[in-house]
Amino acid sequence: MNLSIRHFKAFLSVVHTRSFTRAAEQMHISQPGLSLMMQDMEGQLACRLFERTTRSVHLTAAGQRLVPVAQHVVDEVETIAPVLSQLSEERRRTLRVGATPIFSASVMPHVYMKLRVAQPTLDLHVFDLPKPEVERRVRSGELDCGLGIFPRHVPEVSRRPLFEFDFLYLECRNAPLRLKAQGRPRRIRWDDLPDVPFVELHPTSELQQLIDKRKAASKRLRPEGGIRMNNLESLIGMAAAGVGPTIIPSFAAPVGPDVPVVTALLTDPVLSLGFHLITKRGREQPAVLEAFTGTLLEVIAERGERTYGTPEN
């Protein structure tokens, strides 16, 4: 059965006017077109709805039973239509973004403030979550997009590379190595890393695996006694307190004159990795996603990262 709201409106128009001619005028269609619509409706319902003479139109018993049902259908649709329209408009202006806590703390505040000026009607919701949870919520549709390091293909998800980041050595200002500002930015070779316990992520972390591989190649194996943490924020906090140096992504570096740490770009080689925006494959995205992405890239460029934007599946 394929009855539309237009079928029910046409049927009620005939009922109320008791005339196919006047009903056709109300519906802004031709009388033959209205007659064909009623015939189609009767065919789908397998019953006659009207008894017609040259002068009058009368409902059959089946037609009388249909009137309250048709009226209910039309009333329900007309009631819900503006509600759905409002929801659709809210959906177009609302963006739900998932990002890891360190990115939410270091970059997203600047994006939020820029959007407040450039896109004041954009309703931005930022969820600071572990990377696996960001991925899960994007796949389930709870989030419109996610931000993070996704070096491998993720099922049901489209990846868009946003920028490349480097790795920084970070230590307390009063640490023994005492990085000197010989040019800007400071630099340190992997082979020159201090032979002390580092504050690091757990070995299961993809970031830490990449760092360990590079340290091993430089023959700077991690000494026993290093501290393992779950989050980049914890690495920075521990290093700032003087517990030990650490290695972090450049986008996570704390900035400002009062930060109690110094950083240096790790070189020979410079190790770079991509940062992605992920969305659920095949899902229609809010119109404001591109405005958000453009603003995010502006903030990233201001921080000195290398941006790019070629979509990737």
UniProtKB/TrEMBL annotation:
Matches recorded under InterPro entries: HTH-type_LysR_regulators (IPR050950), LysR_HTH_N (IPR000847), LysR_subst-bd (IPR005119), WH-like_DNA-bd_sf (IPR036388), WH_DNA-bd_sf (IPR036390)
Keyword ATP-binding on this protein? no
Keywords tagged on the record: DNA-binding, Transcription, Transcription regulation
Q: What GO molecular-function term can you cite, just one?
A: DNA-binding transcription factor activity
Q: Where in this chain does the record put each HTH lysR-type domain? A: 1-60
Keyword Coiled coil in record: no
Pfam families per the UniProt record, alphabetical = HTH_1, LysR_substrate
List the GO cellular component terms: cytosol
What domain of life is recorded for the organism? Bacteria
- Fetch the SUPFAM superfamilies from UniProt: Periplasmic binding protein-like II, Winged helix' DNA-binding domain
PANTHER family listed in its UniProt record? HTH-TYPE TRANSCRIPTIONAL REGULATOR YBHD (PTHR30419)
| Membership in a protein family | Belongs to the LysR transcriptional regulatory family.
| Name of the featured protein | DNA-binding transcriptional LysR family regulator
Organism encoding this protein: Pigmentiphaga kullae
